[in-house]
Design goal:
0% of the residues lie in helices and 50% in strands. It is built from no helices and 16 strands. The radius of gyration is 17 Å and the shape is globular.
Length: 179
C-alpha cells in the first residue's frame, strides 16, 4: 500500500505481503478494510500509519480470490471471483451470515467471473455483475436481497466488464464492456 500526501507532496510506502485488489474506508473510522487476493484475507489497516492491524482468513472453499467488498452498516459483503460467490458477514465479529454460490445456482457454466458489487441506497437491493457465463460471451446483472442473498431478478447482457457504477439520482447502473 502507499499513500500520497497531496499537501506535502510526499509518498508514504507500506510494504505488504500479498496483493490488495480492493479496499474501503468508512467515514470517521480509523481503519480501512482491504481484500488480499492471493491469500484470501480481509485486512484492517490503520489509515494514519498504514500498518496492518488485523488479518482474517476468508478462504472457506467458496471464497476464493475475493475481488470486491462493500460495508453497509453492520454488514460486510465479500464478492469472490474464482468461485463466483457473494458472502455476507457481521462486520464486528466476522461471523458468516449468508452465502450464495452463483455456479451452484446454475447462473454460470464457468468457475470464475463475479466481478463487481453495488447497493442501491434507495431500495437497499444489491447488484452483482457476473460473467462471462457461457461460451456465447454473455454476462448477467443480478439483483439480490441484501439479507438472504437470494437472487430476485437477473438480466442477460450481451457483454460485460470489470466496472459497475450505481447512479442513484438516475435510478440506473452504468456497466463497462470488455469488447
Amino acid at each position: 500500500l502507499f499513500r500520497f500526501d497531496l499537501g506535502e507532496q510526499r509518498l508514504l510506502l507500506h510494504p505488504t505481503k500479498g496483493l490488495i485488489r480492493h479496499f474501503q474506508i468508512l467515514p470517521d473510522h480509523p481503519a480501512l478494510y482491504a481484500l488480499e487476493w492471493v491469500y484470501n484475507d480481509l485486512w484492517r489497516v490503520d489509515t494514519r500509519s498504514l500498518l496492518t492491524t488485523g488479518r482474517t482468513p476468508l478462504l472457506d472453499g467458496t471464497i476464493v480470490a475475493p475481488i470486491d467488498l462493500m460495508i453497509e452498516g453492520i454488514d460486510l459483503y465479500v464478492l469472490s471471483t474464482e468461485f463466483p460467490a457473494l458472502t455476507r458477514f457481521n462486520l464486528a465479529t466476522l461471523e458468516k451470515l449468508a452465502q450464495v454460490n452463483f455456479k451452484d445456482l446454475g447462473l454460470t457454466t464457468f468457475r470464475s467471473g463475479a466481478w463487481t458489487l453495488a447497493r442501491n441506497p434507495n431500495t437497499g437491493l444489491l447488484y452483482v455483475h457476473l460473467g462471462m457465463t457461457d461460451l456465447d460471451n454473455r454476462f448477467l446483472l443480478l439483483e439480490l436481497d441484501p439479507q438472504s442473498l437470494q437472487v430476485i431478478r437477473r438480466l442477460t447482457l450481451p457483454a460485460g466488464g470489470l466496472e459497475m457504477l450505481l447512479l442513484p439520482s438516475k435510478n440506473s447502473l452504468l456497466l463497462s464492456d470488455f469488447y
